[in-house]
Design brief:
Elements: H1 27-42, E1 55-60, H2 66-77, E2 81-86, H3 95-105, E3 108-112, H4 116-125, E4 130-132, H5 140-154, E5 161-165, H6 170-182, E6 185-189, H7 198-211, E7 215-218, H8 221-225, E8 230-233, H9 245-252, H10 259-263, E9 270-273, H11 285-288, H12 295-313
Parallel strand pairs: 1-2, 1-3, 3-4, 5-6, 5-8, 6-7, 8-9
Helix pairs in contact: 1-5, 1-12, 2-12, 3-4, 5-6, 5-12, 6-7
The protein binds phosphoric acid mono(formamide)ester and norvaline.
Length: about 325
């Protein structure tokens, strides 16, 4: 809905106006957002009508439990609402026309798409904010929740080390971009040929240099995990790549996160996963259920981080 803005007592707006990818947040905006997410978690009642009357359009081309539920719950708990549409974005009409319809009725578009280009096109066409709820390239909302989780456990980020083990995918890209800006050393351990995109690694290295951290990519699990205080994994075949599952299962098997692999990391290292997990494939049941597994804290924090995100993208209650 394009209405007059109401910004008194509202949190600072994000300069880009969208979250197409992690790049839409500056390092200081990222810290501000995570600070706000912590506040929102501690004092949810304070924000009960912050987005009264505001409606989120949820466009999902792929399945979801966490992202869909947490955006719906977040919108409702902030005084607004959300409407879900499942299916291809732009199947019946051009993506830009979808965007220009939705902006007439609703206040934010949250899109889970196969291609990053669809998110970018929505953002180019819509005057309302557009959020990437996972594309083939990035999963910025997941990384926000993960950074909040690490802050809660570590008390801060600077100088800590996280190792991502598995496919250099959307989740790995977003984690790398957020860790590097917050001073967390990031190690990506992948089978050969499944490394993260070199141009994203290069960007993350620049961020890391500015934050006094490092980004490393390796195929050697033993070397890669040696300093890890958190071990993160994700499915071997992401949504849309199911046809590669059998081949990947063979190539990724040595990288399964099991108790032996966890022993390569620092004692007491956290186990993290964005979920959904394929138990006994990328991670064993034992590690999922272990004392240092923080997977459901990550899932809970999706809600708080996305509330903060919406508060920083939408201009307060509807008028
Ligand atoms: N982690 C995550 O995005 O989960 P969903 O696919 O269930 O949304
Ligand atoms: N990499 C996974 C993440 C799911 C939340 C996928 O894209 O399917």
């Amino acid at each position: 809905m394009i209405t007059e803005t109401h910004s008194s007592a509202s949190p600072t707006r994000l300069k880009s106006g969208d979250l197409r990818s992690d790049f839409d947040l500056s390092a200081s905006e990222l810290r501000m957002l995570l600070e706000l997410a912590g506040e929102v978690k501690r004092q949810p009642d304070k924000w009960r009508s912050a987005l009264r009357g505001r409606i989120a359009s949820l466009l999902f081309e792929k399945p979801s439990l966490r992202t869909r539920m947490t955006f719906e719950v977040a919108a409702k708990q902030l005084g607004g609402d959300a409407i879900l549409t499942v299916g291809p974005v732009g199947g019946r009409e051009p993506v830009k026309d979808v965007a220009r319809n939705l902006e007439r009725w609703t206040d934010i578009i949250v899109a889970r798409t196969f291609e990053q280009e669809t998110v970018d096109e929505l953002a180019r066409a819509a005057e309302i904010p557009v959020v990437n709820a996972l594309s083939d390239r990035y999963h910025p909302c997941q990384a926000l929740a993960d950074m909040l989780t690490l802050k809660e456990i570590w008390g801060g980020w600077q100088g800590h080390t996280l190792a991502f083990v598995g496919d250099g995918n959307n989740v790995a890209h977003s984690l790398m971009l957020d860790c590097s800006r917050l001073g967390v050393n990031f190690v990506c351990v992948t089978p050969q040929g499944y490394e993260p995109k070199p141009e994203i690694v290069e960007q993350a290295r620049e961020f890391a240099m500015a934050a006094g951290a490092a980004v490393e990519v390796t195929n050697d699990a033993e070397a890669g995990l040696a300093r890890a205080e958190a071990v993160y994994t994700d499915v071997w075949a992401s949504m849309g790549l199911e046809h590669e599952a059998a081949e990947r299962a063979r190539l990724f098997a040595p990288y399964q996160v099991n108790s032996g692999l966890m022993e390569l990391a620092q004692p007491g290292a956290l186990f993290m996963h964005c979920l959904p997990a394929h138990r006994e494939e990328e991670v064993t049941d034992e590690v999922m259920e272990s004392r240092t597994s923080v997977i459901f804290q990550q899932a809970e924090n999706r809600l708080h981080a996305q509330k903060a995100l919406m508060l920083m993208l939408i201009d307060g209650p509807a008028r």
